[in-house]
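Lab notebook, bench 4. We co-purified these components, and the gel suggests they stay together. Before we commit to crystallization screens, I want a quick structural picture of the whole thing.
Request: model the full complex, all chains together.
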Amino acid sequence: MSSKNTIENQSGIDTGINKFEKESVEAPRYSCALAGVYGTTLGIRGGIPILHSGAGCGVGQLFGTLYAGGESAGGNEGGTSTPCSCLVEEHVILGGEEKLRNLIESTIEIANDELFVVTSGCVPSLIGDDVDQVVDEFRDQAAIIHVNAPGFKANSSEGYNLFWDAIIDQLLPDEYLESEEKTVNIFGVVPYNHVYWKGDLLTIKTLLESIGIKTNIIFTEKNGLDHIKKIPQAEYNIVVNPWLGVRAVEKLEEKYGTPFIKFPNVPVGAKQTAEFLRIVGEKLSIPSETVENYIAEKEDWYYRLMEYPGDAIILVRPNSFYAVAAESSYAIAFTKFLANELGYLPDIIQITDNPPIEVREEIIREIRDNLDTVVQPDIIFEADTYKIRKNLENRPFLFLFSSSIEAPTSIEDYNALHIPISYPIYNRSVLAKHYSGYDGGLTVVEDVVSGFVGPL
Amino acid sequence: MPKQIAIYGKGGIGKSTTTSNLSAALSDLGYSVMQIGCDPKNDSTTTLRKGKSIPTVLDTVRQRSGDLDNLVHEGYNGIYCVEAGGPEPGVGCAGRGIIAAIELLDNNGIIDEYSPDIIIYDVLGDVVCGGFAMPIRKGIADQVYTVTSSDYMAIYAVNNLFKGILKYSNNGGALLGGVIGNSIKSSLQEDMIKDFTERTNSDVIQFVPRSPTVTRCELDGVTTIEGAPDSRQAEVYRELARKVINNKDKYLPTPFDNDDLADWASGWINQLLLNRKVEIDNIQEEASGI
Ligand SMILES: Nc1ncnc2c1ncn2[C@@H]1O[C@H](COP(=O)(O)OP(=O)(O)OP(=O)(O)O)[C@@H](O)[C@H]1O
Ligand code: SF4
Ligand SMILES: [Mg+2]
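Here is the predicted assembly.
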């Protein structure tokens, strides 16, 4: 162990983290509602956030949402090029409506054919700016919505829900559109806050299209506004989260009669993926032969590959205990995968995205009822980094799946190998990497084994 | 150091009328006075300025003129008149406006430049939020007066103000100087206000009767001191001025809990109603010649 002021990581490299930083209080597992809307908007290609807030909100979220989401820059519409009304004291006192009006006007002027998302932060919500009225003035000029998302009211996860509320209530048409058979929309993967969102969404799309289902993942694809406009046409909506996006699919059912299929998580590995495909296939009347053929083909490939790390696992780290601290969806998916496909033993599962009380029982049941092990983990809902760390003390786990906050000291504090899977992730550039689907399951295994093989 | 006092009370209770007359009377007594209206309506000092309004502190913020020379305007007898100003009705945050205006005056040495003997803040309504409590925080006013009638809601507001004073008192905030009973028409009303002050360990510094002279002068755009200097009402305001300037008392009142206040008030209100009924009955009896 290092006797210096800074802490060394497992390879003896100085991490640059000192004791003060390690015990620092400022280590959030999510950000504010405005951040959630901001990230979600940037997840849409052609989505332009217009922040009605202090200037610090946007810059804060460059670090707190974009960089935290696998070191992503903001692109043309995000980061330091985000349109923002930059409210100062003058606007607090006299109101910020006029400034916003000018900002929207000029933003629409320089960018066209896009989706404009006016997002109100703390300041206008405190002083009661009538933002809806200002936004109303532009509705016939552009696709524009207003999301009231003051940071004091809700967190970034809820920001994702607020975004969809606004899209459905303000942008999508009232009238019923003829639904298109064998098409679905995907909800419940939150841009940036679910750090592997880009790869996960693409994987879900590839999986479903392999069995003949046209899949609208909305985010990451070009012409995002077109994808949003197509939402009402889907035969089914699919939500892969116990709570995020659930309000959206319920709303869409109410508005267009579109039924939805709810999964508690993004499928990780062969078992979850097969189950996912079978359920969706059956609902959408895909011939079971098509589904089974695809599953058989992928499993053949998958299980052959799974044999390769077999020796390393059995000889070096068989039946190891593991701890998870992640958002609901990944916490469920990883806990099931590691127990059911690697034969690892769940020690403690901490859910960090603060799901509403009503769904907590459901989340616990989803984990407890689906583990093929005799060991039952402790399941805790905790968003406070200090308490998360406290809960991890003096436990048998050898692997820790959590945010990068725990990464540098995981060996020193818990003698556990660390794999970053949940927000925030500052120690990895995450582009197409993902843990979902067949290949995603293999990636989990790669990451696990890579932690203890070598170094030479 | 100038004496700095803040006048609080329920909306429409007579704060600006009382404050302006107090300023005018103090000025007549030879003191150099500055009156600062802390109210977005910016009507605190109009009767000191022949009914004419003045540009406000927040107007300069609004126009970004940075022109700080145009904030203080002379009124009756050379009184320095300042209006904090604020947003349009229904827009922005007036509370923050008060904070910004006071900070602006404070940080730019504007008050020091005029070095008045006494500064009076006329503050809007109840202490609804942190902004309106600004004048009683440390370093601004050191003595607070509150204007009330015998109306329950007015006394309720006084009780709230007392709570505000308690809150800030730990940090060197302003303390109570006294209660001004306004629009008094009967001795029973005085008794009610007096009873309230006794139970809250506070004092009435002056009772000001309700008087048509006040209304008449107001319509002429002047204070009673200016418009009817020889009236009995003007003498009341002069008496108030002498008491305020000599009042060194600063203390912590003991406000009622809300429930206790309601219980206390209901007894008094019954009496006041009974009293009014007797009055009306007498008039009716006399009129009907019975
Ligand atoms: N003693 C009095 N006799 C007669 N009329 C009075 C008396 N005191 C106040 N008034 C009248 O009551 C009305 C309200 O008074 P004023 O504007 O001073 O109240 P305020 O407490 O400053 O109100 P606001 O909260 O709106 O600023 C005015 O028309 C004023 O002339
Ligand atoms: S909490 Fe409020 S002030 Fe902070 S970033 Fe979010 S909206 Fe902005
Ligand atoms: Mg007034």
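Chain B is about 45% helix and 15% strand. Worth comparing against the SEC data before the next meeting. The first helix of chain B runs from residue 15 to 28.
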